[in-house]
Amino acid sequence: MRRKWSNISTVFGPLLLVVLYALFWLPWLSGHSKKVVLIPAAIVASLFGVAAFMLKRDPGGPVQFSSAGDRSYRLTEGDLELQLARLRDERKLVVAGVTGDLKVRRVAYKEDAFADIDQLREESKSYRRVNNLFQGFLIVGSLAATGIAGISEQMTWDRWTILGITFLVGTASGFMGYFKYKERSFYLQQTADAIEAEWEAVEVGVGRYKRIQSEEEQLAEFVEEVHRLKSEQKKRQQNLEQPPESRNHSD
Fold first, then answer.
1. In principle, which of 12, 31, 72, 127 could form an S-S bond with 184, CB 3.0–4.6 Å?
2. Burial level of 218, CB count in 10 A (0-12/13-18/19+)?
3. Measuring CA to CA, which residue among 76, 101, 166, 123 is closest to residue 109?
């Protein structure tokens, strides 16, 4: 959340300054109106800048306190990932010390599957946000270019504006077509939902698992199915990362 708000502040601060600069040169806006509008907006833009600086300087997780309790700080994302990696290594050592029990390894794989669901969904949300951003810009940019072209007659700056908007719209469309953000998000979400469905089915013993009485056989079936889903997801990801001509040839 802190990273998200820092990015929002970083974008909206300069954007608001650009809008203020454009408003300052409007001929129909009087000097008094400029003061009424620009001064509060400049303060808001400055607050955006301060918030972006503070959030970028001190990101991370929940607030921690020093050993003396007199100074608070936040663990960075790297620190949290390091702690998580250490815990995973400790669990691997514990599992490795259980004389090669296959059931223990399958239980560990089952527990890891839920973490894979969260990771897949997080990646899906990231691609979905990028796709929605480009899609929204395509819609707004196309309508804006059409509207400006309809009202402009002899103003030369309108032509340059239309040219710039059209260029950006074409760039956004090219990125969406090449990188396939929507397809990436869809496949990641589909795989996460499928793994979650298998998790819930094996937990309550429904679907294919209700015909299997042994817990070890249920775990074996679950591990095999999740491994298949993850392998298919990797194949789809590799296919999407190929150039368009290679994707068409493979299809």
1. 127
2. buried
3. 101
3-state secondary structure of 73: strand
Total length of the chain: 251
Residue 102's alpha-carbon distances to 99, 105, 118, 205, 249, in angstroms, are: 9, 5, 25, 21, 42
Q: Which residues pair with 73 in a beta bridge?
A: 64
Pick left, alpha or beta for residue 207 (phi over 0 → left; psi -120 to 50 → alpha; otherwise beta).
Answer: left
Q: What digits encode the pLDDT tens for the residues 77-92?
A: 777 788 888 887 787 6
Interstrand relation of 72-74 and 63-65 (parallel, antiparallel or unpaired): antiparallel
| One-letter amino acid for residue 160 of the chain | W
Residue 172 has pLDDT above 80, yes or no: yes
CA angle 64-70-75, nearest 5°? 20
Closest CA to 173 of 139, 143, 127, 129: 139
Residue type, position 93, single letter:
L
Which H or E run contains 23?
A: helix 2-24
| 72 three-class SS | strand
Cα of first residue to Cα of last residue in the chain, in angstroms, is: 40
The whole model's pTM is what?
A: 0.61
d(CA 168, CA 165): 5
Cβ atoms of residues 64 and 75 within 8 Å = yes
**Quick check: helix, strand or coil at residue 89?**
helix
CA of 82: how far to CAs of 75, 79, 108, 171, in Å? Answer: 11, 5, 20, 38
The full DSSP string for 167-230 is HHHHHHHHHHHHH-HHHHHHHHHHHHHHHHHHHHHHHHT-GGGGG---HHHHHHHHHHHHHHHH
